[in-house]
Predict the structure of Carbon-nitrogen family hydrolase.
Amino acid sequence: MRASLMQIAVEEDESVESRRQRVAALVRDQRGADLVVLPELWPVGAFAYRQFDAEAETPTGPTYAAVADAARDAGVWLHAGSVVERAGDGTLYNTSLVIAPTGELAATYRKIHRFGFDTGEAVMMGAGTEPVTVPLPGDLTLGLATCYDLRFPELFRSLVDQGAEALVVPAGWPARRREHWTLLARARAVENQSYVLACGTAGTHAGVEQAGHSIVVGPWGDVLAEAGPGEEVLTVDIDPEAVARTREVFPALKDRRLGLAAPHDR
């Protein structure tokens, strides 16, 4: 399976609509990939809190419309990163969209762990409540997480219990904590014996320089590909069977004792 992570530069001098159209064109260029992944909140910028309310949309709003057509034209599964969703009751959510090659919305995930402590996303947005997995053709199940979620291993255990073999993490990760980004991505891969596809943004928005360095990690924790700091498309071939082989050769997940989906004896 060929996966392309699109590390989009989010800059303040580009309008949201211009970026939508530019990114849609980039997605169309990915014909030949099986899965394309975009970063967190790339239309508006993950730290552009003052724009969240004005740019909020439904899951099938203008961002979906732009990139769903592109996914269909390219014939790819598209993890479209995330958008600022406005729910029917007015609550805002940081919501990821997964789009099938038909252009149909296949799944959504509302970010569970909101960043900002007592500011920004943490107070402006509602929290998701449900882990989400998405089965793809070719026997690969995606587990969905977003940015700050990467610091909470219990979410990833839950995704593995639901069958996840590749953990997809779109992000708007700041440059000043880039080492954490790489370390945590590798840790989630090793402890869950899963692929991690972590796709961040480049550029600077709302005064926050972005880390870039999108990364694909294999189920043994080896870095299969890593981007630089600027806008870049990172493409890598992943083997869905490698997860099963890793878990068979080194069956650590069978020795879990806390938080098991179904407790067992040795």
